[in-house]
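Example 3.2
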Amino acid sequence: MSNIYLINLFTVGAFGMILSIAFCDIQWTRTKVLLMAGSMAAVFIMQGIFYFGMDPAIVEYIYPLITHLPLIVVLSMLSKKCLWSAISVMIAYLCCQTRRWLALLIVAVFVGDSVMQDTIELLVTLPILLLILHFAAPSVRTVSHYTKSVQLQFGLVPALYYVFDYLTRIYTNLLSKGVLAVVEFMPFVCSVAYIIFVVQTSRERGIRTYLEQTQQILNLQVTQAIREIEMLRESWQMTKTYRHDLRHHLQYLSSCIENGQLDRAQEYIHEIYSEIESNRIMHFCANEAANLVFSAFARRAGDYGIPIRIETGIPQDIPIADSDLCVLLSNALENALHACQNCKEKGLAASIEVLAYEKNGKCFLQFINSCEERIKFYHGIPITDKPGHGMGVRSICAVVEKYNGMYSFWVNDNKFILRMLL
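Structure, written as tokens:
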């Protein structure tokens, strides 16, 4: 064995062990550092004993037992993660092939020999190591915190390559013989891994989209809850104010009656009554949550001069959570109000009609509002390219689908119609 060959053996061992350690998420202490350093030194000593005392070809056969297995055991002790320790060692083994392949490529181009190959492997070791440590190792460590199934998927290709390399290059010469099934095995693995990656990515994207929709719904629920609390606070504050001012109102009325100003007293009573009526929560149905939403939007529609007609018979006890009911009503009415405002700005007639009732455990909701814009639909759902718009429709669909209900959107004679059954 030449000196350059022995140095290269030591270098690739150090390269693989350093990467194995870097891929494991270990909270390092002085004791752990000393234990790791002592273990690496013991592995190198064991390798030296075997390489100088046995045939190098035999050492390659038992290399996993004298290097990889002890390394996995030590990393498992330090990280408390047996599976990930084994995966880290196999990933490091896979990374070792980068330096070997680059050397083989250069040797093939310049028609070199084994000494040239060992030399090139030594030269590219440090740059490759630094690149992997800086760019790849932090990301690889994060996978150790994922579920066992994700770790297994991540470590599948390195594990298959590890077994493939030893079975076809070390323990047998099937690869050098050019057996087609062997030669095409790793491309097959890469193809399957890519397909799995695409499927997994698509699934995760779907989950992420669902979570984003859920987050939007929660944000809308919070916004609606804040509106309801603010409306109740205003109503309560007005009640306190009227209660405080009641004696002043009675004194004024008493003075009017004593002075024979009955018309003035009657007019004053009507003024106070109108003021109280304008600030009270209107009663539309027995459901308190629906009442709050209908009252808030009826008041807003009145402020904008938009006629709104609400016919509802929603009882208090329905199979829909108050938060979900608020999301449905608020989004539908918000979109209707926005469309009617656009109509009024262009001098067109605008109105909103609401029909809601419960029967046989099912809730039916219908919203009809004026619209002037040409609305685009995709698979029966209205879409828009305006930034910040469209979330309300997605939230409505998500809530209805949550209850396995049905929804429909369409436009007829400049009227936008939304119906929901859930």
